[in-house]
Amino acid sequence: MVKIKEAVTARDMKAFAEYPLKLYKNSDFYVPCFTSDERNIKNPRKNYAAEGCEVKCFLAYKNDELAGRIAGIIVEESNRKFGEKKIRFSRFDFNGDEDVAEALLNAVADFGREYGMTTIHGPWGFNDTDREGMLTEGFDRAATYATNYNYEYYPKTLEKLGYKKESEWVEFEIYPETLDSGIYKAAEFVQRRYGFVELNDKYPIKRVIREYADAFFDCYNESYKDLDCYVELKGNVKKNVLTQFATVINQDYFSCVLDPKTGKIAAFGVVIPAIGKIIKKHNGRLVASALPLLRAIKKPEALELTLIGVAPEYRNTGVNAMVVTRIHRSIMKNGITDVVCNPMLTTNAGILSQWKHVKHKEIKLRATFEKDI
């Protein structure tokens, strides 16, 4: 018999945060979140994304052994924006026992019904900077810093329980040496024609973040606002994202293009060093990972394309060529050949069209699932 317990105490939340470390102990592909972040996901004073949300975490026990975990999140802003009554499930991990999975998902569904929700869906996080989607193909590839890994039995179990696919993402391996050289010429033309300024060629990264953070987030929100379940980043949530950026960004692989005539950020690109192996080695402990992370960020051996965005009013200018050129130039200068991109919605034709200029290979698919409750 499966027993579900709401994680309330500090001890419960420690078990919640550390359960995946045990589950994936023998996996070469899993990358943990920082456990300090996981312990505090319900605490809006430390996880600003939880502000305005209803959040509960659950633990599943079978034969007195911890067998799974899950979080339920009601993002009121998302439900208002899309006219829905949905509860998100997140941080879903279990030992392969279908009864455990069903009990965990039912706990979230019951939580949702209490607040008038009619659908459960996930894995979704609090917003688009959180990990989202369940791996459905590519189980033999390592996760990235920003993505979930899960065993092959996860999606099969959801389908057995009556869940249907909702959103789907694809991930690519990129071969940077094959980039069409015409992109460089296009970037030069665009810069001359519109007078755009690459801020990272002009200022240190700290100054860019300090002086242009609000403009950056305006561009970020405008670029992503129409994507599935997107929740605007605003207020204190920006602090969480800036902290993440400050932790992992190397200025060589960051592009932020300003339109000086309007003061708006026209486009941006964020490529981060691949730090998954380091986080895994130290079991998600941030302090223990600190020095190895700094070394890897300063001189990365592999990269993960995390974000690229163009504000709607600049999408026909070709400004994305400037973003690609700046980052590509650094990749080639530093001799990096191992580059992957993080998930892109299969319905996002605009971003997928960017890859026609470089050789790439599909390596993973992931999806969210939903069910009426």
Q: How would you describe the overall organization of this protein?
A:
It is built from 13 helices and 14 strands. The radius of gyration is 21 Å and the shape is globular. About 35% of the residues lie in helices and about 25% in strands. The chain is of the alpha+beta class.
Would you kindly provide a brief summary of this structure?
The protein has helices at residues 10-23, 35-39, 76-82, 98-114, 153-160, 182-194, 199-202, 205-224, 237-248, 276-281, 286-298, 320-333, 349-352, and strands at residues 2-6, 53-62, 65-75, 86-94, 119-122, 134-137, 164-174, 197-198, 254-259, 264-273, 302-310, 338-341, 344-345, 360-372. With 373 residues, it is of the alpha+beta class.
What's the N-to-C terminus distance?
23 Å
Structural class: alpha+beta
What is the string of helix and strand elements? Answer: EHHEEHEHEEHEHEHHHEEHHEHEEHE
Q: Name the average pLDDT.
A: 94
List the helices and strands and how they pair.
Layout: E1 2-6, H1 10-23, H2 35-39, E2 53-62, E3 65-75, H3 76-82, E4 86-94, H4 98-114, E5 119-122, E6 134-137, H5 153-160, E7 164-174, H6 182-194, E8 197-198, H7 199-202, H8 205-224, H9 237-248, E9 254-259, E10 264-273, H10 276-281, H11 286-298, E11 302-310, H12 320-333, E12 338-341, E13 344-345, H13 349-352, E14 360-372
Parallel strand pairs: 4-5, 11-12
Antiparallel strand pairs: 1-2, 2-3, 3-4, 5-14, 6-14, 7-12, 7-13, 7-14, 8-9, 9-10, 10-11
